Amino acid sequence: MRTLHPLIISLLTYLLLLLLSDLPSSGAGSGHDSQCGGADRGSTLRVFHVSSPCSPLKPPGGLSWEESVLRMQAEDQARLQFLTSLAGGVKSSVPIASGRQIVQSPTYVARVQIGTPEQTMLMALDTSNDAAWVPCSGCIGCASSTVFDPAKSTSFKAVGCQAAQCQQVPNPTCSGSACSFNMTYGGSSIAAGLFQDTFRLATDPVAEYTFGCIQKVTGTSAPPQGLLGLGRGPLSLVSQAQRLYKSTFSYCLPSFRSLSFSGSLRLGPAGQPIRIKYTPLLRNPRRSSLYYVNLIGIRVGRKVVDIPPEALAFNPTTGAGTVFDSGTVFTRLVEPAYVAVRDAFRARMRNATVSSLGGFDTCYSVPVLAPTITFMFAGMNMTLPMDNILIHSTAGSLSCLAMAAAPSNVNSVLNVIASMQQQNHRVLFDVPNSRLGVSREPCS
């Protein structure tokens, strides 16, 4: 037995090290369940919703369910305003999470390492924005205590005024030889300098990635630790890492109640689902970053709802049509389409009493068995299960239809397929072949 003693000690030590390696660090997930820990592996990044319990930036006391819903809904309004203002080889998978409890933002976040040596930022993923930007040291008005420190990176450098990238940012200005820009994001105004540094998602470094280093922020709409643009413009990840990922990516968004980085952002054509149905991507020159698709009808249960054709039609001149967007929480439909869907949904509830909560006008205080809702696109259908249709109170029995009409004068012509309705689906953006695919995939 004495000869076994050193071996037993070695095994116990090894197991202890394994347990310790899986504990959360002082970053995302600090102080939470061990599910919050774990490193990004290979080319897959773990993703959390900003409201996940793993978030180090969630409010100390937390928010009630009603407060959370109303806050997300208010932030959606700013998001919709932003949308209106917008006129392969390598396999890489990055964990993503709901940012709702992590960084107190109604977005999805992924860990991105920036600089040499690397500094980790929990950046929001945004399919309707191009440029990346992060709060930098000395930022005035930035909400997060986690900022990028350029002085600590040996690969950090400024982008000059004569560089092509300086003309690709909104409202560029020059101070000396350095390029700066100003932009609005939702209800926030952002002033930033334009710089380059190495970005790494999982194991894949992208050298000389052009991004904004935020110097000043007003308002509360900007994601606290920055944003990674996944749009179609020249400064997006899709374009800047085109050689690496061939302008192809997909994601699976977990529920915003998910406790871990259980979702994933999969970069590049390798490893993408084979059995997936597609609909063509449409291009709007006036809103070139947005991923437009052709929504041809909506079904509630088995019945196709009677919607005026002009409510769904794609019109590049007016910006009308339908887009997939990762930054809006609840799907918005132009008023004629929403009213038709809502009324068909209410009819299936028979005589149940309807109430409202904030902008949600179809809520019930009795148990609800919701019909499925199917978005019918050219070439594919996307049928939503109940979890993607209803938002439930954790403190009571209230359930609401998690959709709303597009607000007056803000995206009044734009239908937005938002993140709650995309949850637990693999959404594939194949830009070279101009198509978008959707398939069910549990990732919460």
UniProtKB/TrEMBL annotation:
<feature type="active site">
    <location>
        <position position="325"/>
    </location>
</feature>
<dbReference type="InterPro" id="IPR033121">
    <property type="entry name" value="PEPTIDASE_A1"/>
</dbReference>
<keyword id="KW-0378">Hydrolase</keyword>
<dbReference type="GO" id="GO:0006508">
    <property type="term" value="P:proteolysis"/>
</dbReference>
<dbReference type="InterPro" id="IPR021109">
    <property type="entry name" value="Peptidase_aspartic_dom_sf"/>
</dbReference>
<feature type="domain" description="Peptidase A1">
    <location>
        <begin position="108"/>
        <end position="439"/>
    </location>
</feature>
<keyword id="KW-0645">Protease</keyword>
<dbReference type="Pfam" id="PF14541">
    <property type="entry name" value="TAXi_C"/>
</dbReference>
<protein>
    <recommendedName>
        <fullName>Peptidase A1 domain-containing protein</fullName>
    </recommendedName>
</protein>
<dbReference type="InterPro" id="IPR001461">
    <property type="entry name" value="Aspartic_peptidase_A1"/>
</dbReference>
<keyword id="KW-0064">Aspartyl protease</keyword>
<comment type="similarity">
    <text>Belongs to the peptidase A1 family.</text>
</comment>
<dbReference type="InterPro" id="IPR032861">
    <property type="entry name" value="TAXi_N"/>
</dbReference>
<dbReference type="GO" id="GO:0004190">
    <property type="term" value="F:aspartic-type endopeptidase activity"/>
</dbReference>
<feature type="signal peptide">
    <location>
        <begin position="1"/>
        <end position="28"/>
    </location>
</feature>
<keyword id="KW-0325">Glycoprotein</keyword>
<keyword id="KW-1015">Disulfide bond</keyword>
<dbReference type="InterPro" id="IPR032799">
    <property type="entry name" value="TAXi_C"/>
</dbReference>
<dbReference type="Pfam" id="PF14543">
    <property type="entry name" value="TAXi_N"/>
</dbReference>
<keyword id="KW-0732">Signal</keyword>
<feature type="active site">
    <location>
        <position position="126"/>
    </location>
</feature>
